[in-house]
Amino acid sequence: MRRDEILSEKLARLKLQLETLKLHGHQYVEFSGNNNWIAKLRDEASVFAPAPPAGSTKLKDNVAVVTPGKSSSGSGELDLIAQEVKSCELCPLAKSRTNTVFGVGDAKARLMFIGEAPGRDEDLKGEPFVGRAGALLTRMIKGMGLERGDVYIANIIKCRPPKNRNPEPVEVDNCEPYLKRQINIIKPEIICALGAVSAQTLLKTKTPISKLRGRLHQYQGAPLLPTFHPAYLLRNPSAKTEAWSDLQMIMKKLGLKIPDK
Ligand code: URA
129 in ligand 1 pocket by Cβ < 6 Å? Predict the structure, then answer.
């Protein structure tokens, strides 16, 4: 075999190994302008050397391997995606955000709530649904006989849109893959979409929330039940009756005891 053939074979193998690392949740970044594969080959041994301490970022020429910090969610896989989201710069929201807002809760939750995007409080804290609407969501969860930590809470968009405007289609296109990966790991038995924007975005429809709520749809292989957004319920308390009936549908599906009136 000629030397260049050996090199190109090694190169193909290295590319495959890097893809495998990526599939396992590691991030590697190829910096544009320096596509020096020979340097990569030289560093092959060190890239695949024993893992660096958790939380560290290892930079080798044009390859960065990020090792996640200690898992707080109970899932290393989720933490790896959270790290990716933290360094995501796919859209201009990256410039205006204080924190990315990935998601919280049980990595094996049977029930997952999905809102639209972080607001001001969430952007400051890096956690979804922590403002007034979040307090109501927590009460709704408790009403179901559960705690916040029993479920998983996330948004479609992981960065706050300026002035809390609705997410732009391009932002959804950039961010929804992260959500899909979260769902694939958590494998919830049921998803509750919170509000019109969440339900319409996930279901790719313009049907009003009043028509979508109260019945089961499908998203990423899981049943999805839309209900009103807690912020809407704060403004329209009379809609809480319908929201409670939606939550009861979810409870039935999960075999949870419905409290006596
Ligand atoms: N509204 C949302 O849709 N998500 C949050 O995290 C907070 C408010």
Answer: yes
**How much is the pLDDT for 53?**
39
For the chain, where are the alpha helices, taking DSSP H only?
A: 3-23, 37-42, 44-47, 76-86, 93-96, 120-125, 132-143, 169-186, 196-203, 209-212, 230-235, 240-254
Report the nearest atom of ligand 1 relative to the CA of 197: 3
Going from the Cα of 6 to the center of ligand 1, the distance in angstroms, rounded, reads: 53
pLDDT at 12: 54
Confidence of residue 78 (pLDDT cuts 50, 70, 90): very high
| pTM for this model (two decimals) | 0.75
**What residue ranges define each of the domains in the chain, with the CATH number in brackets?**
3-66 (no CATH), 74-254 (3.40.470.10)
Q: Which atom of ligand 1 is nearest to the CA of 153?
A: 6
